[in-house]
Amino acid sequence: MPELQGQCMCGAVTVTATPAKDSLGACHCDQCRRWTSSMLVTFQAEPGYAALGPVKTFTSSDWAERAFCSECGSALWYRVTAPGEMHGHTEMAAGLFEDTGHELQLELFIDKKPEGYAFAGERKQMTKAEVEAMFAPSEEGDNQ
Known about the structure:
single chain; mainly beta; eight-stranded mixed β-sheet; 2 helices
Protein backbone atom coordinates (compact mmCIF):
# COMPACT_ATOMS: atom_id res chain seq x y z
CA MET A 1 0.00 0.00 0.00
CA PRO A 2 1.25 3.50 -0.67
CA GLU A 3 2.21 5.75 2.22
CA LEU A 4 -0.31 8.55 2.87
CA GLN A 5 0.42 12.11 4.03
CA GLY A 6 -2.15 14.05 6.02
CA GLN A 7 -2.67 16.77 8.55
CA CYS A 8 -5.02 18.01 11.24
CA MET A 9 -7.52 20.82 10.63
CA CYS A 10 -5.10 23.63 11.58
CA GLY A 11 -2.01 22.01 10.00
CA ALA A 12 -0.01 21.94 13.24
CA VAL A 13 0.17 18.12 13.16
CA THR A 14 1.34 16.29 10.06
CA VAL A 15 0.83 12.54 9.77
CA THR A 16 2.45 9.91 7.58
CA ALA A 17 0.89 6.43 7.58
CA THR A 18 0.64 3.32 5.45
CA PRO A 19 -2.72 1.52 5.48
CA ALA A 20 -2.45 -2.14 6.54
CA LYS A 21 -5.54 -3.01 4.49
CA ASP A 22 -7.42 -1.42 1.61
CA SER A 23 -10.53 -0.78 3.68
CA LEU A 24 -12.10 1.73 6.04
CA GLY A 25 -14.03 1.08 9.23
CA ALA A 26 -16.56 3.19 11.12
CA CYS A 27 -17.11 3.08 14.86
CA HIS A 28 -20.44 4.13 16.39
CA CYS A 29 -19.50 3.65 20.07
CA ASP A 30 -20.50 6.33 22.57
CA GLN A 31 -16.92 7.60 22.88
CA CYS A 32 -16.29 7.92 19.13
CA ARG A 33 -19.59 9.74 18.69
CA ARG A 34 -18.74 12.14 21.51
CA TRP A 35 -15.22 12.63 20.14
CA THR A 36 -16.29 13.38 16.56
CA SER A 37 -19.98 14.32 16.94
CA SER A 38 -20.68 11.41 14.59
CA MET A 39 -18.95 8.11 13.86
CA LEU A 40 -15.15 7.81 13.63
CA VAL A 41 -14.02 6.57 10.20
CA THR A 42 -10.54 5.01 10.23
CA PHE A 43 -8.06 2.73 8.52
CA GLN A 44 -5.69 0.32 10.22
CA ALA A 45 -2.17 1.79 10.10
CA GLU A 46 0.97 -0.26 9.65
CA PRO A 47 3.54 0.10 12.46
CA GLY A 48 5.96 2.95 11.78
CA TYR A 49 3.47 5.76 11.21
CA ALA A 50 4.67 9.23 12.21
CA ALA A 51 2.96 12.29 13.64
CA LEU A 52 4.85 15.55 14.04
CA GLY A 53 3.50 18.48 15.99
CA PRO A 54 1.49 19.07 19.18
CA VAL A 55 0.01 15.58 19.66
CA LYS A 56 -1.82 14.81 22.91
CA THR A 57 -3.13 11.42 24.01
CA PHE A 58 -6.03 10.57 26.26
CA THR A 59 -6.61 7.19 27.94
CA SER A 60 -10.22 6.65 26.93
CA SER A 61 -10.80 3.10 28.22
CA ASP A 62 -9.13 0.19 29.96
CA TRP A 63 -7.75 -0.97 26.62
CA ALA A 64 -7.11 2.10 24.45
CA GLU A 65 -6.00 5.68 24.02
CA ARG A 66 -6.97 8.40 21.57
CA ALA A 67 -4.68 11.02 20.09
CA PHE A 68 -5.60 14.51 18.98
CA CYS A 69 -4.00 17.82 17.97
CA SER A 70 -3.61 19.98 21.06
CA GLU A 71 -4.12 23.11 18.94
CA CYS A 72 -7.34 22.42 17.01
CA GLY A 73 -8.56 19.19 18.62
CA SER A 74 -8.64 17.13 15.40
CA ALA A 75 -8.92 13.39 16.01
CA LEU A 76 -5.68 11.64 14.97
CA TRP A 77 -5.88 7.97 15.97
CA TYR A 78 -7.23 5.31 18.28
CA ARG A 79 -4.59 2.86 19.61
CA VAL A 80 -5.01 -0.35 21.62
CA THR A 81 -2.89 -0.20 24.79
CA ALA A 82 -4.02 -3.43 26.47
CA PRO A 83 -1.53 -6.28 26.54
CA GLY A 84 -2.13 -9.10 24.13
CA GLU A 85 -2.38 -9.80 20.45
CA MET A 86 -3.92 -6.43 19.53
CA HIS A 87 -1.50 -4.29 21.60
CA GLY A 88 -0.33 -1.35 19.47
CA HIS A 89 -3.09 -1.83 16.86
CA THR A 90 -3.71 1.70 15.57
CA GLU A 91 -6.72 3.02 13.69
CA MET A 92 -5.81 6.27 11.93
CA ALA A 93 -8.53 8.90 11.42
CA ALA A 94 -9.28 8.76 7.70
CA GLY A 95 -10.31 12.42 7.59
CA LEU A 96 -6.70 13.53 8.05
CA PHE A 97 -5.92 12.38 4.51
CA GLU A 98 -7.11 13.80 1.20
CA ASP A 99 -8.51 10.45 0.00
CA THR A 100 -7.47 6.95 0.97
CA GLY A 101 -9.24 5.48 -2.05
CA HIS A 102 -10.61 2.70 0.17
CA GLU A 103 -14.19 1.58 0.71
CA LEU A 104 -16.03 1.27 4.00
CA GLN A 105 -16.03 -2.45 4.86
CA LEU A 106 -16.69 -2.60 8.63
CA GLU A 107 -18.97 -0.93 11.16
CA LEU A 108 -18.30 -1.38 14.88
CA PHE A 109 -20.85 -0.95 17.70
CA ILE A 110 -23.62 -1.09 15.10
CA ASP A 111 -26.16 -1.49 17.91
CA LYS A 112 -25.08 1.94 19.26
CA LYS A 113 -25.59 3.77 15.93
CA PRO A 114 -28.26 6.48 16.14
CA GLU A 115 -31.33 6.07 13.91
CA GLY A 116 -30.68 9.37 12.07
CA TYR A 117 -28.09 8.13 9.57
CA ALA A 118 -26.94 5.00 7.76
CA PHE A 119 -24.35 4.09 5.15
CA ALA A 120 -25.49 2.69 1.80
CA GLY A 121 -24.31 -0.75 0.76
CA GLU A 122 -23.37 -3.93 2.57
CA ARG A 123 -20.43 -4.49 4.93
CA LYS A 124 -19.52 -6.48 8.01
CA GLN A 125 -21.20 -5.11 11.13
CA MET A 126 -20.25 -5.94 14.73
CA THR A 127 -22.25 -5.26 17.91
CA LYS A 128 -20.91 -3.86 21.16
CA ALA A 129 -20.77 -7.39 22.65
CA GLU A 130 -18.84 -8.73 19.64
CA VAL A 131 -16.28 -5.91 19.78
CA GLU A 132 -15.83 -6.20 23.54
CA ALA A 133 -15.33 -9.96 23.20
CA MET A 134 -12.17 -9.20 21.19
CA PHE A 135 -10.69 -7.66 24.35
CA ALA A 136 -11.91 -10.29 26.83
CA PRO A 137 -9.27 -12.46 28.52
CA SER A 138 -8.64 -15.70 26.66
CA GLU A 139 -8.49 -19.10 28.39
CA GLU A 140 -4.74 -18.59 28.89
CA GLY A 141 -5.48 -15.33 30.76
CA ASP A 142 -4.20 -13.01 28.03
CA ASN A 143 -6.24 -10.20 26.52
CA GLN A 144 -6.88 -10.47 22.82
